[in-house]
Amino acid sequence: MGKHMVSVTASVPACEPPAWAVLQRQLFSVLDEAWRVFEDRYCHPEGGLRFDGVLEGRDGADDFYEPFFNWPMLYMLGGSDDLLDASKKHWNGVTRQLSEAGFLVDEYERGYDWFHQGESLLMFYGICAADPSDDTFRRRALRFAELYLPTSPVGNVDGPRRIITAPHTGAGGPRRGVDEGWAQGYGAELTNMKPYGLPLEDLPGIDSWDDLADPANARRMGEAMDRRLGDGDVAVNLASTSLIANAWLYTGEDRYRDWLVDYVQAWRDRAAAADGIVPDNVGPSGEVGELHDGRWYGGSYGWTWPHGLHSVGAVALIAAMNAALVTGDDAWFDLARAPLDRVLEEATRGPVRDGESSMASTWLQRLGPDADADLQLVPYRKGMHGWFDHQPLQIAFPAWIWWCSGDPQDRQRLDQVERECGYDWTTVHAFRDKEEAGHEAPWLAYLDGRNPDYPARALGMALGQVARRMALVHEDASSVRTDDIHWWQRLNPVVTEILVQLTTGAPAAPYNGGLQQTRVRYWDADRSRPGLPADVAALVEELDETRVGVQLVNLSNTRERRVVVQAGAFAEDGIDHVVVDQLDDGYPGPNRAYRADEFTTSTRRIDVHDNHLLVVLPPGTRLGLSMQVRRHQFTPSHPTFDRFQEKQNDDR
Fold first, then answer.
1. Do 222 and 239 fall into the same domain?
2. At 634, which CATH number?
3. Do 368 and 462 belong together in one domain?
4. Which of 52, 440, 492, 596 is exposed most, by the fewest CB atoms within 10 A?
């Protein structure tokens, strides 16, 4: 890494600012107003949510963090200065609130599944990445990760067997069994769970959901769930690798990396014994299928119940991303590839119909009229009677694999999915779902050069989603909830998916506990903080394994803006050189003229040999920046602005 920071100054005028740039800055402005309204309406001054109900059972902690999950990301992208402190305030407030309710021990989840823990931790990971210099959050990150190391006395990990010891774990150690209410009887009156079917398929006399109407059957199901779904390791525990990776990004200590790699490798070994597909359950002795008559499927939040690919595919991807991050080796993605290839082999065709699949309502809203087309439907779940629960494939899964690996075969899989999916990838559907994701297809088509107006259309769509959320807030008759703990996340007006795509060149992080990886990241050189400076818009317009093309525009006609462009979310990628455009002559022309003359531009190459460079944007200028990059060139870490500041001081 060089001692001095390479600097390039823009000279090409932004005479007619592109629509995407204007809309992007408008979105930043609208969001910085919207989160304040939400905060004033639904939050106590100390940061907790206005809730006067009673929390029971094990479920619910995630729902108190999720309304704020993407607020730290908005700050990192360039949101207002006070948003970071607001994010910390709400994390602290919610943590106190949940601690008083008995859900947390020493600020961490008492014991629950990693499908939900992953959701809870997104906000925490975002704060850690946004401000690694905050020693309080740093200590928390290390303390939380310690809970999931073999050396921890709480007993979440069995190092010799390479397992996490229960589906529900946390600061209280392994919390065996399932939710206490379910354990006493899992009956047909649980209508919200009916779309997911029977949790266990092999209980005599219980062949359909209606059989659970018999109290004796409901009791037998609950007892069996408590015993068989509440012990041993399960695939969704792979999401815990993000907690370990987050600590490693702070310290670089081998013990974090070594356990992460060993744990993921254990699941790779089990997958190899199951024709490549990651199994979903491991018994207390370390044997796959120990609690399910030898079957590799049937575990909690696994292939059979309740979500199948939606959960197992997500955690396989998260684990592969984390293992590749700490090792620099993309071979880990075999863990995430195999499940996709298997379900694609079992694909059928047809429309999405309400009630015919467990997530039909989600797809009907995501696809709109396209849901009626002849679609490729892949089975999300595997049971004793074969593959079932056919739905459209989540594009984020193959997209992330290709994004991370750059492997031509991963690109071929993605192209095949597009050819066979049955809907147009250039369409921008207007929705904002819980995961703040789902627009990967039109974004990928844009990067391929087949959807040129995607940036402006997507930003317009995002503005519309903010407007709808604010309308829902304004028509809400109360600010205090007593029952529905999902209420706030459905009203959170902060939208970041499109900003992440366009400015950083990445899909939104996997929602069940993924760390946000990016191709580029920005720092405001004058305010010494993460994110784009005021007035500056950014667009990643080309992307492959060795090249990233970025367009930067300064919309201010009076102020110079300076931005540090970093390769990789964790400064892990290297920039070999950049090719930039520059003004030759012809602008602004003579002052007697009523219009500017046509101006000409050319390009020049600048060697960088580092993971960042400084871009100076004089008033009303733009810069096209084509970066030749090397993936995994540097050791990833949580970067702070201090190292850039030191280099700027050296240059002076």
1. no
2. 2.60.40
3. yes
4. 52
